Amino acid sequence: MAIIVPPRATRQRPLPANPPVARRPRSDRPSRVPTVLIVILLVAVSLFILLPVIWMVSASFRTQGDLVGNPTSLIPQVFTLDNYINVWQRIPFGRQLLNTIIFAGGTTLASLLFDSMAAYALARFNFPGRDVVFILIVVTLMIPIQVTFIPLYELLADFGWINTFHGLVIPRVADAFGIFFLRQFFLSLPKDLEDAARIDGAGEVRIFARIMLPLAGPALLTVAMFTFLASWNDLLWPLLVATDPQMQTLPAGLALFKGQHSSDYGMLMAGAILALLPMIVAFVFVQRRFIEGIATTGMK
């Protein structure tokens, strides 16, 4: 009896899901022409934006005759340091620099204290009229500050606070923008932190001082930079309250170089650069936290 052996089943290789495609030969490196054009365009725009600053630096090393004769030039015909020397003699520059530091620093510290407390209360506490109070604070941002100068001056004159540091600082101890900014930051923080602290027996003052304020460091630094810069460059308020040259701030003192019929632009630019240097140094040291505070405020 013949035995029939079935043929062996041959394995078939599975077809690849994606058949290989012939690759094109790699070309040379991509052209960098668009990148170079973008860099050139950005440099040109940056130089155009910085043109007033460049002119200010150039003018501070030029004589008055050079500036009047050729005001559009950026290259001094005669390089001189007399403007930086004379600015200390024409006005009490050192005293006014100290006044500016006291005014801007005192206003900033007071604003951080009162703005943070008001913002924390508006963000975390539930009390009748809370939303109404917040709306009224925001509405004050639309009121020009010049409207308040006359009643504030009369009030300070009645108190005898003209030509005093507390007369300069106290009317600026709170700011609607700072309250709004910090409130948005406090709203972004989780409430579990406060609940855990209350369970451990911490009071509201301790929660605010030991937990919330350290977490609000970037936002506080941002508000401090805005407040300090606004106070450092403020002209109208110190000019109104401080009539004594020994009590004036730098912006008010530098305004004396610009008269009705003639202006000493060289010394004015030199004084402006000297007043600008502390702000540049301060921003270089805090720019990272400053940008972080703006980027994270209001995010949930």
UniProtKB/TrEMBL annotation:
<dbReference type="GO" id="GO:0055085">
    <property type="term" value="P:transmembrane transport"/>
</dbReference>
<keyword id="KW-1003">Cell membrane</keyword>
<feature type="transmembrane region" description="Helical">
    <location>
        <begin position="132"/>
        <end position="153"/>
    </location>
</feature>
<protein>
    <submittedName>
        <fullName>Carbohydrate ABC transporter permease</fullName>
    </submittedName>
</protein>
<feature type="transmembrane region" description="Helical">
    <location>
        <begin position="207"/>
        <end position="230"/>
    </location>
</feature>
<dbReference type="GO" id="GO:0005886">
    <property type="term" value="C:plasma membrane"/>
</dbReference>
<feature type="transmembrane region" description="Helical">
    <location>
        <begin position="165"/>
        <end position="186"/>
    </location>
</feature>
<feature type="region of interest" description="Disordered">
    <location>
        <begin position="1"/>
        <end position="29"/>
    </location>
</feature>
<keyword id="KW-1133">Transmembrane helix</keyword>
<feature type="domain" description="ABC transmembrane type-1">
    <location>
        <begin position="97"/>
        <end position="286"/>
    </location>
</feature>
<feature type="transmembrane region" description="Helical">
    <location>
        <begin position="33"/>
        <end position="57"/>
    </location>
</feature>
<keyword id="KW-0472">Membrane</keyword>
<comment type="similarity">
    <text>Belongs to the binding-protein-dependent transport system permease family.</text>
</comment>
<feature type="transmembrane region" description="Helical">
    <location>
        <begin position="97"/>
        <end position="120"/>
    </location>
</feature>
<dbReference type="Pfam" id="PF00528">
    <property type="entry name" value="BPD_transp_1"/>
</dbReference>
<feature type="transmembrane region" description="Helical">
    <location>
        <begin position="265"/>
        <end position="286"/>
    </location>
</feature>
<dbReference type="InterPro" id="IPR000515">
    <property type="entry name" value="MetI-like"/>
</dbReference>
<dbReference type="InterPro" id="IPR035906">
    <property type="entry name" value="MetI-like_sf"/>
</dbReference>
<keyword id="KW-0813">Transport</keyword>
<keyword id="KW-0812">Transmembrane</keyword>
